[in-house]
């Protein structure tokens, strides 16, 4: 359920005005506005157009116009649906001439009104043993089944064999702009114990929205011999697209229905990483024409100094060499940055939302001198903590969402003993202390066993012949096999080291050994699809049965060729529900603010205004509250010839929320 959120703001405008002119009327109108959604507030910039009617000193009627820009920041509650269109209006309050010495001012007061939709606050759980928990999960937004018939010519001797079986291995799913690409291998068993492999690449036509993930399973459901030694294979591919989303679910204590490992959301912050990159061009150049960024691969990991952000950026540098040839130098630039404190009890996810690359003016650097680039990354850091809970079955009137969750198969204590040889330092006299500084634990499940690997960082202190304490770092790689009949390929294995017992030992040959006992726990879980119950007052029902969002794509023409996009921001405005015949549509605009650098490195600003039409299924257009929400956007330059104006390709993902009217 939703209700209206309203805010009223009293404002005033003061402008110089001739003291002899009497103002009778001022008509106010909103010419344009822009909205920027922050974490806990929204920033509103409004352009007001005023038509002023006055009498001059000689009794003549005067008409004047002016344009005023005002900015205001409003705090918003957490229940407000973010990135929705706002309803904005203005009403006049008072009008007065203010004389201050020789200066005369015309002061007008008015009210700025804002209105939007917000969810009703969450109600307490229906039962004492249930509670609500904010989690981060992979929500299923679209799924389906695709059937493909594959006709393979086989040698006559193989096609005539009595037994012919097929299966699929090495499955891989990729999201392409025009659909889902499935890649794998078709393994054909000819009955003699040998398998022949045939590569598969199948395109599933489907609308693809930015920010989605895809996965699925493929199987062979039919093998049919045909004429001329051909064999017809029927391949069935069950696929689903998911999206990482934060949502509140109803949980209960673990019981007979099973235990689930959930990622609870602790914090989510928007940050900016600024980094200076230096690189050398492969040869002396006459002119550096352009620097373009390509793919960015990024990861976040827990290290000795906290949280480490590691990235690999593709760069294309276009330049004119000393002999007048135009060349392109492609390179991959790695970078690392410590971005904050970290705990091994928590999990961290990082998503890059924007990338900007700036550099000095384009004349080439001196021969042998490094090129300095300034990199800015807008990213979102999510902090998660795992928790075990039960998921109660959905009740019939309660809202649900289908998500991928980890169901715990078993949780067992883990112990492993190993002796690690230590290299004896030349000045060693006696061992002093060994400490476990940190360790990376990995687990991979196979048939009937789990393959475990631990890579700790050990600090060993010893005393030398001068009775001085010195320290040595030891980085062993410990691997072993843990037998478990419940382990199978595809099962998720998570191992944790809770404690260690370490002791130094010297054998009869004088060799040093570290006796290490690892104590921890091993969790095996299986990922499964499950409909989870949501709080009744805190869920939005998707308007489309199969797709949670629709995409809007277009080419935006600019006055100058865009070399680099510095910043881009979109917002929705002026949406209304329109009925045309038996169909329902959402009509509105997508506004945008685009900042880019032209070929000469000058910063340019461009205002975007795009009309948007979204079709709504007829059943949802009756007795429903329909709210469009801007889900994601991206904007990239298009290749143009130098004598043409530049263009950028814009893509928006708009999610449709639908709520019932209260009776």
Briefly note the structural class of the backbone: mainly beta
Q: pLDDT under 50 segments (min length 5)?
A: 124-128, 538-547
Considering DSSP H and I runs of 4 or more, what fraction of the residues is helical? under 10%
Mean pLDDT, to the nearest integer, reads: 82
Cα(first) to Cα(last) distance is 11 Å
Q: How many H/I helices?
A: 2
- Tertiary shape: globular
The largest sheet, given as strand count, sense and whether it forms a barrel, is: 9 strands, antiparallel
- The count of DSSP E runs of length 2 or more, i.e. the number of strands, is 32
Could you walk me through the main structural features you see in this protein, from its secondary elements to its overall organization?
This protein has 663 residues and is an all-beta fold. 1% of the residues lie in helices and 72% in strands. The protein has 2 helices and 32 strands. The strands form 8 sheets. Strands 7, 11, 12, 13, 17, 18, 19, 24 and 25 form a 9-stranded antiparallel sheet that branches. Strands 20, 21, 22 and 23 form a 4-stranded antiparallel sheet that branches. A hairpin with a 5-residue loop joins strand 24 and strand 25. It is globular. The N and C termini lie close together (11 Å).
């Amino acid at each position: 359920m939703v209700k209206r959120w309203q805010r009223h703001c009293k404002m005033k405008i003061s402008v110089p005005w001739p003291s002899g002119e009497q103002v009778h009327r001022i008509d106010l109108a909103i010419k344009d506005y822009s909205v920027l959604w922050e974490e806990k507030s929204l920033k509103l910039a409004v352009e007001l157009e005023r038509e002023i009617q006055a009498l001059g000193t000689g009794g003549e009627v005067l008409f004047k116009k002016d344009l005023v820009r005002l900015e205001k920041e409003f705090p918003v509650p957490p229940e407000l649906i973010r990135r929705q269109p706002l309803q904005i209006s203005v009403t006049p309050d008072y009008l007065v001439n203010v004389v201050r010495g020789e200066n005369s001012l015309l002061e007008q007061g008015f009210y700025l009104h804002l209105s939007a939709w917000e969810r009703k606050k969450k109600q307490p759980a229906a039962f004492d043993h249930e509670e609500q928990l904010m989690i981060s999960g992979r929500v299923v937004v679209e799924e389906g089944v695709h059937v493909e018939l594959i006709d393979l010519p086989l040698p006559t001797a193989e096609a005539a064999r009595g037994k012919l079986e097929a299966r699929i291995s090495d499955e891989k799913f990729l999201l392409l702009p025009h659909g889902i690409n499935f890649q794998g291998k078709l393994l054909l068993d000819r009955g003699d114990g040998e398998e022949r492999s045939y590569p598969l690449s199948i395109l599933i036509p489907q609308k693809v929205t930015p920010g989605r993930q895809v996965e699925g399973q493929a199987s062979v459901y039919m093998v049919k011999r045909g004429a001329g030694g051909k064999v017809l294979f029927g391949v069935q591919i069950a696929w689903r697209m998911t999206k990482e989303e934060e949502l509140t679910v109803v949980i209960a204590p673990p019981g007979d229905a099973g235990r689930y490992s959930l990622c609870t959301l602790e914090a989510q912050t928007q940050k900016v990483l600024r980094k200076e990159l230096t690189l050398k061009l492969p040869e002396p150049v006459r002119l550096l024409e352009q620097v373009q960024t390509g793919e960015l691969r990024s990861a976040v990991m827990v290290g000795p100094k906290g949280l480490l952000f590691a990235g690999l950026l593709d760069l294309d540098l276009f330049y004119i060499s000393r002999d007048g040839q135009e060349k392109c130098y492609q390179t991959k630039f790695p970078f690392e940055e410590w971005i904050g404190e970290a705990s091994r009890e928590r999990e961290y996810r990082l998503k890059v939302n924007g990338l900007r690359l700036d550099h000095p003016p384009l004349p080439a650097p001196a021969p042998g001198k490094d090129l300095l680039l300034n990199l800015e990354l807008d990213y979102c850091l999510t902090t998660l903590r795992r928790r075990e809970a039960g998921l109660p079955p959905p009740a019939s009137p309660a809202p649900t969402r289908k998500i991928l969750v980890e169901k715990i198969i078993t949780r067992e204590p883990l112990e492993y003993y190993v002796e690690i040889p230590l290299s004896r330092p030349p000045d060693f006299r006696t061992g002093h202390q060994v400490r476990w500084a940190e360790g990376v634990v990995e687990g991979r499940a196979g048939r009937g066993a789990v393959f475990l690997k631990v890579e700790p960082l050990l600090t060993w202190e010893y005393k030398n012949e001068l009775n001085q304490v010195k320290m040595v770092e030891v980085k062993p790689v410990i691997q072993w096999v843990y037998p478990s009949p419940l382990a199978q390929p595809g099962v998720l294995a998570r191992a944790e080291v809770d404690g260690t017992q370490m002791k130094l030992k010297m054998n009869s040959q004088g060799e040093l050994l570290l006796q290490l006992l690892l104590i921890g726990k091993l969790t095996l879980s299986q990922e499964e699809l499950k409909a989870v119950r949501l709080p009744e007052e805190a869920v939005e029902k998707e308007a489309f049965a199969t797709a949670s969002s629709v995409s809007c794509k277009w080419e935006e023409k600019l006055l100058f060729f865009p070399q680099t996009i510095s910043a881009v921001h979109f917002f929705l405005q002026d949406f209304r529900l329109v009925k045309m015949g038996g169909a329902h549509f959402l009509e509105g605009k997508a506004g945008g603010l685009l900042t880019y650098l032209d070929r000469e490195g000058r910063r340019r600003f461009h205002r975007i205004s795009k009309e948007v039409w979204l079709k709504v299924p007829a059943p949802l257009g009756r007795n429903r509250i329909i709210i469009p929400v801007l889900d994601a956007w991206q904007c990239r330059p298009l290749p143009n010839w130098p004598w043409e104006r530049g263009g950028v390709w814009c893509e928006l993902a708009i999610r449709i929320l639908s709520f019932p009217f209260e009776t």
